[in-house]
Amino acid sequence: MSDTPLKLGWEEWLSLPDLGLPAIRAKVDTGAKTSALHAHAVEPFGSISKPQIRFTLRPNPDDPDLEVVCAAPIVDRREVTSSNGETELRYVISTNVQFGDQKWPIQVTLTNRETMAYRMLFGRTSITEDMAVLPAESFIQPKLSYDLYKGFPRKKAAKRPLRIALLTREPNNYSCQRLKEAAEQRGHHIEMIDTRRCYMAINAQQPEVHYDGKPLPQYDAVIPRIGASMTFYGMAVLRQFEMMGAYCLNSAQSIGVSRDKLYAHQLLARHRIGMPATAFASSPKDTKDLISLAGNGAVVVKLLESTQGKGVVLAETKKAAESLIDAFRGLEANFLVQEFVKEAGGADVRCFVVGNKVVGAIKRQGAEGEFRSNLHRGGSASVIKLSVEEKKVAIKASKVMGLSVAGVDILQSSTGPKILEVNSSPGLEGIENTTKKDVASMMIEHIELHAPVVNTAIRTRSAKPS
């Protein structure tokens, strides 16, 4: 390193030349011990004595087609606790980091940062004693640009047959059968895997998923269709497939975020995405104050574990709301209280998002006398043309959750679109039968675009312009 002390702001551009990454925008965080780099399709390989790892990275959050395949020796595997308190077992690699003309080796953990604004977190163990971090400054070091990736190969859809696993406990339902049909029509092999019958061999060098007494093979991609009752175990199985290098249509982390209704609403609020006024409680003593937080009018009370409209009740008056909340308190259940958007007229809009595009939308109208619009409860559906604002908010909501495929439910209010829920496992029957669109094939096309390169990854990992 240079004799001149290096100064860093709270965000900086850097390069990782050994990984073939000329420009990464990183958050410099002295509160984080370890540096972390975004990685997906992580695949360990090599011998036990000299383990290696390859992974893909999309350096530009706004350009998902730019994908660089990297490889490096594994130096460790350790548990890392994130800022939200979750502990994750991560691979650790050693590589050189470069700011301007100064370069030195650092250790970096690999994790999925798809939902983060920065593809890299630069932690305090990567900062030497003679360096200074100025938290009020940004981009002190020379600014780089994603333009440095011009000429890099663009991600292209897979032209080879893919081996796909469909995680489900209901292989014969409409959605699973349509996905199977769409995959096979495009020349792929798809296997239905019962989530509950999977069990895992958890070790540092060769993670495996076992099924009926045998280890499952390496899959190119996994489609999770995990029911609410299987969320915890299903996420564990999905994480194991992620560690084995499979592309998961929705990651375990994104499914967990979307299923945690409280956290999902907090994320939406953090990103200034419109939603009905919402309050959260477990066993509040001040019921009146809780109702006032949700608008002081008619409210909807939802159990956090509710699905398909179950555990969702409308209280049209303040007194009815107080009685209802008192009843929920007796159940010792966690619940949300939301304002009732009367002008929606018992209807909502289901936007089906694949990648960065709304591929279909339907308006769901509740049955007469029913404020819930779920089709499972007798609601009807019709095709609707979305406004530009509605499309943007649906895509943004799914991106905030980190979901590649999502069913985003929107209320059309007098103050603009309001997000009700972001579903990580949306059904296909209602959207396909109403819009007559082949949404299942669109999901398979998305997998083709994002399935990892097999065997040739080492040759392409340098990612130098062709």
Distance between the amino and carboxyl termini: 31 Å
- Trace the largest sheet across and list its strands: 2-3-10-4-9-8-7-6-5
Question: Domains counted in the coordinates: how many?
Answer: 3
Low-confidence stretches: 454-466
> How large is the radius of gyration?
24 Å
CATH superfamily placement of the largest domain? Acid Proteases
Query: How many strands in all?
Result: 27
What spatial form do the alpha-carbon principal axes imply? globular
Helix/strand/pairing class, anyone?
alpha+beta
Strand content: 25-35%
User: How does CATH name the architecture of the largest domain?
Assistant: Beta Barrel
Question: Total helix count?
Answer: 10
Overall mean confidence score, pLDDT:
84
The percentage helix is 10-25%
CATH-defined fold name of the largest domain: Cathepsin D, subunit A, domain 1
Question: Could you name the CATH class of the largest domain?
Answer: Mainly Beta
Question: In this structure, how is the largest beta sheet organized?
Answer: 9 strands, mixed
Binding site for Mn(2+) 1: 409, 421
Pfam family, one: RimK
Binding site for Mn(2+) 2: 421, 423
Binding site for Mg(2+) 1: 409, 421
Structure description:
Belongs to the RimK family. ATP binds at residues 302, 339-340, 348, 372-374. There is one protein chain. The protein is of the alpha+beta class and 466 residues long. The protein has helices at 174-185, 231-243, 252-259, 261-270, 287-293, 318-330, 388-401, 429-435, 439-450, 457-460, and strands at residues 7-9, 11-16, 21-28, 35-38, 40-46, 51-57, 68-81, 87-99, 102-111, 120-122, 132-134, 163-167, 189-193, 198-201, 208-211, 214-215, 221-224, 247-248, 278-281, 299-303, 312-315, 335-339, 347-354, 357-365, 380-383, 405-413, 416-423. The strands form 6 sheets. Strands 2-3-10-4-9-8-7-6-5 form a 9-stranded mixed beta sheet. A 5-stranded antiparallel beta sheet has the order 25-24-23-26-27, sandwiched between helices. A hairpin with a 2-residue loop joins strand 15 and strand 16.
